[in-house]
Specification:
about 500 residues; mainly alpha; 6 strands; about 60% helix; cell membrane; membrane; auxin signaling pathway; transmembrane helix; symporter activity
């Protein structure tokens, strides 16, 4: 699995009896999940040039030599229980945009702008956008490295480095996705509690209760949607939900800001605490734009996968980032250094408008969580041979038990430590930095070592070293903040 495959492969094939319009017609019998294909050639050509990825060609009589072109490699696809190559670049672009404009965006005014201030926050967000696009582009270009379509991040790392890197990458990615999922459950629970508080003032709905309800709804959705490509129309709903809470937060924040007296924009805290919060905010910057599962998302896109993935990334980092910028800057402008980590808890306006915005944030979090949980679902489904109809009793009962159990544990952790900002910092530090920046640069360096100039190599090594230092520093800062908050709040705190 991890041995590099040559792009120039020669296959033996026999001439088929069928002949149409002066061209031989070959029927390609694929293995390992590939479909059937037809290759046409000229009678008078001595060397047949095949432009389809084939593994074996079955014909009769005469032996012919078929050489695969360099720009059309024999791309193999690993076995998987989920759909591959079924989505347009536009749908994949919406998957990526759903991730960055999820309900997490309601926290960036408080978790990024407050600890960094105007200069640090604005410059940091813009730089993080450019750096994230660059790093994701590097990763996207490695998707078909060595003639194999690497549909999982760990598969790509294992192909380049070996089994140990495969296991390490899988561990990092699992931590990344688990923490992101916990954050979504906390967000969904916070939105539910916010709706309750708008209409009732009895304090009966505690945050842990709301998180438990949110986790149950997430489990129901995970059972009903078998794989990432099956989201389909739900991505449209996700976009509508995102626009609802972003527009409401934006409009009400601007209205509050215009009525409010001058705000304090100084960075709060002592000199020592400012260091930790600033480093933690840098982890939030990269967390805002990156999924940590780009190969898994790219696996769903149609051929040509690299070209289409680049279109999706350009869409994500242009159109997709505009709502994030608007709501983040407007929220900080309106409330200054006192901005909450959940912006909808700050805004003033009609109760029904705020209720709709919070309900939209809750529903969007449920959909977005499914995206970030899909690599774990794909691993479990593939490992246990879950194929065929999603409604088959075996498949349905498996999703109920396994996905339900996974989300139950995730919900328990979310309710136990409901510190959303700290989750974002720790996730960015221990997994998003290594997966998106360190590994992406080093894998590209290893894969293209003979093609890069000395300046290009030094550039990639500079990125590797810089983000390695940032990852260590951000991890220490995030753990310090979690320890601090754990002293301030008890387990299952009602924040």
């Amino acid at each position: 699995m991890y041995e590099k495959a040559s792009r120039n492969n020669t296959y033996k094939q026999k001439k088929q009896t069928t002949k149409e319009s002066g061209c031989f017609k070959f029927q390609c019998a694929e293995r390992a999940g590939h479909g059937l294909g037809v290759v046409n050639c000229d009678d008078h050509q001595k060397n047949l040039q095949v432009t389809l990825a084939v593994k074996s060609v079955s014909v009769d009589e005469e032996q012919l030599s078929v050489t695969l072109l360099e720009n059309h490699p024999d791309v193999r696809i690993p076995d998987t229980a989920h759909q591959i190559s079924s989505d347009s670049w536009f749908q994949v672009g919406f998957v990526l945009t759903t991730g960055i404009n999820s309900a997490y965006v309601l926290g960036y005014s408080g978790t990024i702008m407050v600890p960094l201030g105007w200069v640090g926050g604005v410059v940091g967000l813009i730089l993080a956008t450019a750096i994230s696009l660059y790093a994701n582009a590097l990763l996207a270009m490695l998707h078909e490295l060595g003639g194999t379509r690497h549909i999982r991040y760990r598969d790509l790392a294992g192909y380049i480095y070996g089994r140990k890197a495969y296991s390490l990458t899988w561990a990092l990615q699992y931590i990344n996705l688990f923490m992101i999922n916990a954050g979504y459950i906390i967000l969904a629970g916070s939105a539910l509690k916010a709706v309750y508080v708008l209409f009732r003032d009895d304090d009966l709905m505690k945050l842990p209760y709301a998180i438990a309800i949110a986790g149950f709804v997430c489990a129901i959705f995970a059972i009903c949607i078998p794989h990432l490509s099956a989201l389909g129309i739900w991505l449209g709903f996700s976009t509508v939900f995102s626009l609802v809470y972003i527009v409401v937060a934006l409009v009400l924040s601007i209205r509050d800001g215009m009525k409010s007296p001058p705000r304090d924009y100084s960075i709060p805290g002592t000199t020592g605490s400012k260091i930790f919060t600033t480093v933690g905010a840098s982890a939030n910057l990269v967390f805002a734009y990156n999924t940590g599962m780009l190969p898994e998302i790219q696996a769903t896109i149609r051929q040509p996968v690299v070209k289409n993935m680049m279109k999706a990334l350009y869409f994500q980092f242009t159109v997709g980032v505009l709502p994030l910028y608007l709501v983040t800057f407007a929220g900080y402008w309106a409330y200054g250094s006192s901005t909450a980590t959940y912006l909808l808890s700050d805004v003033n306006g009609p109760v029904w408008v705020k209720a709709i915005a919070n309900i939209a944030a809750f529903l969007q979090s449920v959909i977005a969580l499914h995206i970030f949980a899909s690599p774990m679902y794909e691993y479990l489904d593939t490992k246990n041979g879950i194929k065929g109809s999603a409604l088959a009793f075996k498949n349905l009962s498996f999703r109920v038990l396994v996905r339900g159990g996974y989300l139950a544990f995730n919900t328990f952790v979310s309710a136990l430590l409901p510190f959303l900002g700290d989750f974002m910092s720790l996730t960015g530090a221990i997994s998003t930095f290594p997966l998106t920046f360190i590994l992406a640069n080093h894998m590209y360096l290893v894969a293209n070592d003979n093609k890069l100039t000395s300046i290009q190599k030094h550039w990639h090594w500079l990125n590797i070293c810089f983000f390695g230092i940032m990852s260590v520093a951000a991890t220490i800062a995030a753990l310090q903040l979690i320890a601090l908050h754990s002293k301030m709040y008890h387990f299952f705190a009602d924040l």
